Amino acid sequence: MNTSLTNVDSVNAIIQINVTKDDYQEKVEKSLKSFRQKASVPGFRKGMVPMGMVKKMYGKSVLAEEINKLVGESLYSYIQENKLNVLGEPLPNEEKQQPINFEVEGDYEFFFDIALAPEIKLSLTKRDKVTYYKIAADQELVDKQIASFKSNYGKYEQVIDEAQDTDLLRGEIRELENGQPKEGGIFVESGVLMTSYFKNDEEKAKFKGVKIDDVIVFNPGKAYDGHEAEIASFLHIEKDQVESIAAEFSFTVKEVTRYKEAELDQELFDKVFGEGTVKTADEFIQKVKDGIAEQMAPDSDYKFLLDARKLLEKKAGDLEFPDAFLKRWLLATGKERTAESIEEEYPKIIEDLKFHLIKEQIVKDNELKVEEEDLRSMAKNTARAQFAQYGMMHLPDDVVENYANEMLKNKDSVRNMVDRAMEIKVSDYLKKTLGVTEKEISLDEFKKFFEEETANEAK
């Protein structure tokens, strides 16, 4: 079998594969013998069907399968061995490729079009300037985060004064009939309600300023505006029983508890950052600032890479792409694509492809690699970031480790982490190589970059 390449131009080529009878005959015979052993034909014992009959029944399909397999292996081996940087997948050449007749064994010729990535040369120095916008953790952000911590780590305390809308009331719930407890009616010994969840202001007003031992007569159906799930949960009944309940219930207040935010003290410091990590309010505030800065660093990195992209594309210059081939390939592989939709989408596809190839070139030129430790570190950081969204800033190492292990078992998660880890390595390389000027800006100023970009795209 002979495989060769002919360059059409700098980004298009044709791979020719010549297959002779000697290349496939042994494989075909072996496959037919296997069919003969398994074939079940009336009048013949299993494994005793004449080979001539087997060839007549299966010869064409076996020949086609074995040759296609050989051609596919040869095609991709040639691409790998010659380190061809191809775009998309090879496609049969529409001019040179003749119809293949598998009725008769003989020699065959196959022609495939391939698209070659344009050559990219980058010369980057400190003279190439890019601004890195670091988002400042201003006082408003710090105050919001501290308020969130105080709220998350607060607790309910019993009170004896008048209840407020946000207080939690515990008490006895009784179904009434003619103003009296209904015989065999619904009774909940330890019911719970918060009037802030009521949908009806009139029913909510009945609980205003209540105290322990007060008895309030109200309508749960109105209070929860007919929401069956909420009514059923409140009365400890099934949803299908809601329609048959009485209009009036009594609620005898037995306990009033009020949520009290945590104080800015050592107990809060320890809960948020771990015991003894922070010892003063000033240290706590600084730690909160550092945490916010760390959480916003990926946004700054994203903006930096967008700005670096413009510089890199300018440095790479105009690149030639095999447009006709790529459009043909997109149409062949995209089930829902049409020639019209491809024409519309193509400029954006090429724009993204150009930057993808530039990043690939940086990876290749600088031998950047994603190691197992990089993935494990990313999985741990992802776990910490996800927990931090819920105010859980300090987690035991074993909890983070276990969560990371679960993420590393998921192939899709690993694939995404490899892409993100490589992008971080490319970004880190650019920070070291380019002339980067750091500028601190507020979050509002940072958001304006993207608001302006969106407005420009809309024009």
Features of this protein?
Chitinase A, domain 3, four-stranded antiparallel beta sheet, alpha+beta, Trigger factor, domain 2, Alpha-Beta Plaits, 18% strand, 459 residues, 3 domains
User: What is the second-level CATH architecture of the largest domain?
Assistant: Orthogonal Bundle
Q: Give me the oligomer status.
A: single chain
The ordered H/E elements are: EEHHEEEHEEEEHEHHEHHHHHHHEH
Helix coverage percent: 40-55%
Fraction in beta strands: 15-25%
End-to-end Cα distance, whole Å, is 57 Å
Taking all Cα atoms into account, the compactness measure Rg is 36 Å
* Average predicted local confidence, pLDDT: 89
What is the number of beta strands? 12
* Count of separate structural domains: 3
Q: How many strands, which pairing sense, and closed or not: the largest β-sheet?
A: 6 strands, antiparallel
Structural class: alpha+beta
Question: What is the class of the largest domain in the CATH system?
Answer: Mainly Alpha
Instruction: Name the overall outline.
Output: extended
- CATH-derived topology of the largest domain: Trigger factor, domain 2
Which spans have pLDDT < 50 for at least 5 consecutive residues? none
Number of helices: 14
